[in-house]
Amino acid sequence: MPTGRWPADLRQGLALLVAGAGGAWVAQRIAVPAGVIVGALLASGLFRLVGGDPGPWRGRYGRVGRLLLGTVIGAAFGPDVLTPLKTALLPMAVVTAVIVGVGLGLGWVLGRLTPLDPSTALISGVPGGLPAMAAIADESAADATVVTVIHFARLTTILVLVPVLIPLLAAGNSENTVAPGVIEAAGFWHTAVTLTVGLLGGLAALRLRIPTGDLIGPILVVGGANLLGAGLGTLAEGFRQLAMLLIGTAVGAQMSRESLRLLRQVALPAAALIVTLISVGLGLGWGLSRVTSLDLASALLSSVPGGASTMPAVAHDLGGDMRLVAALHLTRQLVIFILLPAILGHLLRGRRHSQASLIGSE
Known about the structure:
Blueprint: H1 6-29, H2 35-49, H3 57-76, H4 82-87, H5 89-113, H6 118-125, H7 130-139, H8 144-171, H9 188-207, H10 213-227, H11 237-252, H12 257-265, H13 267-291, H14 296-303, H15 311-315, H16 322-361
């Protein structure tokens, strides 16, 4: 960066981080469920709304947070996670198919009820990760701003409501709920090696232009190495908390008055879309817990469309298994990455053909 710019740039980053950390601290003090990520999100959003400028730090904090979270999740993987994944493979595939299908259907309805073009409406309805959906919108000539606003509203709603709902829903199913285990952290050198491997895996995935590669890369590389017996990690709890703080701060920093104005234009249909997706996700999660050995918290968090970088982050606090939660969310995200560009391409070709026919008839 230019020499004359760095003091102001550093102040922006520090102010945003202080706001996020302050919100996380307050939320934890008053015992808000998943308080680190929820408090950081709300506080950094308020920071933006009162005129705070995050500069480039929203993207930086989000990337570091995803790299760190991916490494934490990958380090927690081991042979013990394969058994529940195998037994839940078919039900998880059904959950993924249903939630993606419902998202596409809701996107189609959103396009019919609002002035949004079909590409923007479909991408707004599909429950993929916010950064990836915004990138796909930009590449597809959709309105990336509207897509970002709707996905941000969905993510914020889920992060605020789900940590409250999960304990209430799990209270009557205590026999099918597991408490998070005590993590015995690795020593200094193992931790350093694990973080380095995770960083390199994330940077390699980004280099290959894999969507949300900064999260997927560390999970695949570190988790794959552990499944092969490398024994990387497990990382201390403080790394997961730091990842949650950075991700919550980055998500909240996307809030702006303009985004709120845009959301008001499609508020009612977008709210119905969000409520429907959350309700379907909770219903699928309950069903998943009934037909598999997954505990209720893990099943619910795996099915609610909150994003691959956020639901695993809160799973540990809510009594779920963040490895299983991450596995299902990443699977759904990969399905969306494969299907959505093809669907959008088909729609756009159809629209161009219809427009050409209409022009020809004139």
